[in-house]
Amino acid sequence: MAYNAGVSALLEKARGYLPDDRAELVERALEFAGAAHEGQTRRSGEPYVEHPVEVASYLADLNLDASTLAAALLHDVIEDCGVSADDLRERFGEDVARLADGVTKLTRLDTLTGGAQPLVAKSNSEAESLRKMLVAMANDIRVVLIKLADRLHNMRTLAALPPARRVAIAQETLDIYAPLAHRLGMGEAKWQLEDLAFRHIQPNQYRNISKLLSTKRKEREAYVLRVTEELRGELAKAGFVADVTGRPKHIYSIFRKTQSYAAQGKQVGDIFDLFAVRVLVPTVPDCYGALGLVHSLWRPVPGQFDDYIASPKENMYQSLHTTVRCIDGHPVEVQVRTHEMHRVSEYGVASHWSYKEGGASKSSEFEERMTWLRQLLEWQRDVSMTDEFLENVTGDLFRDQVFVYTPKNEVRELPAGATPIDFAYRIHTELGHRCIGAKINGRLAALNTPLRSGDTVEVLTSKIARGPSLDWLNPHLDYVKTSSARQAIRAWFRHQERDANIERGRAVLRKELKRLSTQVDEAEVARWFRYDATADLHAAIGSGVVTIAQVAGRLSAKHAEESAAAHPIEVDVPTPVHSGVSVLGVGDLLTRMAECCTPLPGDAIQGYITRTRGVSVHKADCANIHNGSETARIVPVSWGQTRSVFPVRIRVECWDRVGLLHDITGATSSEHVNIAGSTTEPAESGLVVIHITVQVASIEQLSRLFTRIESVRGVRNVSRTLQKPRAKAPAKAGVR
Fold first, then answer.
1. Among residues 266, 295, 299, which one has the least CA distance to residue 279?
2. Residue numbers annotated as active site
3. Out of 32, 450, 537, 624, which could bridge 526 as a Cys pair, Cβ 3.0 to 4.6 Å?
4. What is d(CA 138, CA 414) in angstroms, rounded to the nearest whole number?
């Protein structure tokens, strides 16, 4: 094939660090790819072979081994040129064929999902796509490195695709590929993917930020030049051999920063840390010495220091971060690291792959840092449903991290929002099963307390194996955030006696249906979750496979399914804004919620035509409309689009104490539910009953509210009531 500039540059890079015989493998793969793609063009009009050449060229910049470069050049010949994996195996060896075939399978998954939605959407095909990608990554990281390089070049040439396709691919890139690059420590690939995706998803915002940066560039560059020159001179005086540079922040990171600054009333022009200063030194002691000099030169901003050298991130990133009030008092971010740390921060796991005769090798540090990849294989074996696997991965891999300490000062990295229970299960599964309490920084804390970076956590355990609580799986209670802990808890319940699970699940389900005061057959609920028998549903709830939150969600959606089944012919009925109820066959008609039964979206309902107040909407089993003599006034109604909240009365039975009502209203407010009124009445000795009228949007929200209120100390029972409370009794001291 004729060698253009791109091909020549690739071969020059490969020959620069590969032995002659391995560079010859790359050249043979290049010749084969050129012949296979002969006559093929991309949508942009360029010869197709330029794409694999650019992919391989990016990987050559990372000094990856010859097999990876060859597989990058051949990654499309199986899919587009009718070449089999066996042909590649015969010509280029097992390693190259396996890598190329692995990338091809990932590409086919992209085609299967169509790129129409981001992979974090919970559909089977999308979940399966992410599962295959991450499992491939666990088996051989080079497959995903090739795929990331492939996506990076595709993003650079995205303009040739139709607008809708561009946006879909860009969104998928922002949701999946950029976080993957970050998790693999590939900082350079991450920011390029984010900026390219942002350009297509929000083009106006992208242009606005680019324009603003352009107008302020000279001013900012002049300021950073003053800072870097002064710091470089002071470091030289102190005897440090340091490389000091200004680092521009990228457009997408600036966009995210402007959003946080907008809440403070600041404009882009007010942000002086759009450029960070980076200091590269030879050794780790030099890092801390240079940091001390920076802090002596300029005043540090409180709370803006992070030591990622002592506590590296799981993606192997190491650096010292500080923000100081620099020249003229402007805040400037300073990063201090060694040259080796900088190489790892830019290229991540790719920096740990080096060429050796016979293939690629990995350092022991690489193996230690990437243990989370091995965990993917464990999840792959333990989780049968793809959406549950997706929940595990997106919940733990793509979330911001916090660093906490064990009592022995060992660092553990957890997703932001993780709790002491998550911490216990991260240490050991058995420790999680025995957990009964926790101390954070030496003080007793609730098990659903979110952990913060720097916390020291001590897990309190029972002497006997009592096992976890089913409440830990309730998402409304926020006990567990990590999917690995959730998976361990579910596994514990699955291994319990089936009869015990059935009994536990039956009690939980019936309690929920009773307190929501909703009439639904348990067999129907079982069908919603594809169980043939109610016992199977009870066992699933009892083992944590199905949660009550999922049941409440299906109850809220039930009205839409019933409407579709009962009225296959759609009727275009304007929806009253104030009620969200449609009266079948009638236009914009006044409706109101009946006070006798206060129906909620998700309840089966019927309408009753009143003489002066339009249609009164009742629950289908309300005695007030069926016991009357004028049953002809009953009309079919269905829930339309809910655009407002609905009043519902709840009954809270609790032990009287000072501050009780304050805590209950606080729990209600945390669910963003408004209280329309409340009354109290004494019950038996020491008990009080509080009747509260709240305004909720659905049964699902009501279920969450019940869970919140039940967590208040002293509350015995919460239920929905259709009866009006008695005349208001004088408030007792304890419920003020």
1. 295
2. 79-80
3. 537
4. 20
